[in-house]
Amino acid sequence: MTGEPLALWAEILVCALLLLGSAFVLIGAIGLYRLPDFFMRLHGPTKATTLGVGGVVIASLVFFSAGPDGLSLHELLISLFLFISAPVSAYMLTKAAVLQQLPVDPRTRGKPWDQ
Amino acid sequence: MLAYVIPLCLAMLGLALLLTLARLIKGPCLPDRVLALDTLYINAIATLVLYGIWKGSDLFFEVALLIAVLGFVSTVAVAKYMLRGDIIE
């Protein structure tokens, strides 16, 4: 930590957002590691991890905006770009997995290549 | 308070990175590995932003943005290769 300390409300807000974001990233990684087949594993990174990164980035926005330099919004670029790009890459990976006909767990609903 | 929360969050993100790395090594097929790489760079962005908060420095933001853009482009390129067997037709 450098410079003067933050205001109390900003510190509490930054701490809450950081804990929430890190918890979401960790849950997404656990899902990626533990779920049984590829189509279930896709949910961890595309939903939980993207939300977690959004939380951490907004915590950084609050932290630097409450500092001596005033408002700083350029962190929004990262979360905006991730929220646009994550569904696109997930869609292309799913198309590739459907094309390769990866093994499907019986609990996965719907076989995409039967339709 | 921030001095206690940030190391805790760094530990959680480090555990997430290790789990993703395990999936990257173990992953039974190619789309699994590409998905693990995708998750790995997203987690790296979160870790870099958190480190920037810890050091109170704005410099890590540019690094995170570069990783975001290049990671997305490389994921799309590899997915295109898996779909068509070719990147540029």
UniProtKB/TrEMBL annotation, chain A:
<feature type="transmembrane region" description="Helical">
    <location>
        <begin position="76"/>
        <end position="93"/>
    </location>
</feature>
<feature type="transmembrane region" description="Helical">
    <location>
        <begin position="6"/>
        <end position="33"/>
    </location>
</feature>
<dbReference type="InterPro" id="IPR005133">
    <property type="entry name" value="PhaG_MnhG_YufB"/>
</dbReference>
<dbReference type="Pfam" id="PF03334">
    <property type="entry name" value="PhaG_MnhG_YufB"/>
</dbReference>
<keyword id="KW-0812">Transmembrane</keyword>
<feature type="transmembrane region" description="Helical">
    <location>
        <begin position="45"/>
        <end position="64"/>
    </location>
</feature>
<dbReference type="GO" id="GO:0015385">
    <property type="term" value="F:sodium:proton antiporter activity"/>
</dbReference>
<keyword id="KW-1133">Transmembrane helix</keyword>
<protein>
    <submittedName>
        <fullName>Na(+)/H(+) antiporter subunit G</fullName>
    </submittedName>
</protein>
<keyword id="KW-0472">Membrane</keyword>
From TrEMBL, chain B:
<dbReference type="GO" id="GO:0015385">
    <property type="term" value="F:sodium:proton antiporter activity"/>
</dbReference>
<dbReference type="GO" id="GO:0005886">
    <property type="term" value="C:plasma membrane"/>
</dbReference>
<dbReference type="Pfam" id="PF04066">
    <property type="entry name" value="MrpF_PhaF"/>
</dbReference>
<keyword id="KW-1003">Cell membrane</keyword>
<keyword id="KW-0472">Membrane</keyword>
<keyword id="KW-0812">Transmembrane</keyword>
<keyword id="KW-0050">Antiport</keyword>
<keyword id="KW-0813">Transport</keyword>
<comment type="similarity">
    <text>Belongs to the CPA3 antiporters (TC 2.A.63) subunit F family.</text>
</comment>
<feature type="transmembrane region" description="Helical">
    <location>
        <begin position="34"/>
        <end position="53"/>
    </location>
</feature>
<dbReference type="InterPro" id="IPR007208">
    <property type="entry name" value="MrpF/PhaF-like"/>
</dbReference>
<protein>
    <submittedName>
        <fullName>Na(+)/H(+) antiporter subunit F</fullName>
    </submittedName>
</protein>
<keyword id="KW-0406">Ion transport</keyword>
<feature type="transmembrane region" description="Helical">
    <location>
        <begin position="60"/>
        <end position="83"/>
    </location>
</feature>
<keyword id="KW-1133">Transmembrane helix</keyword>
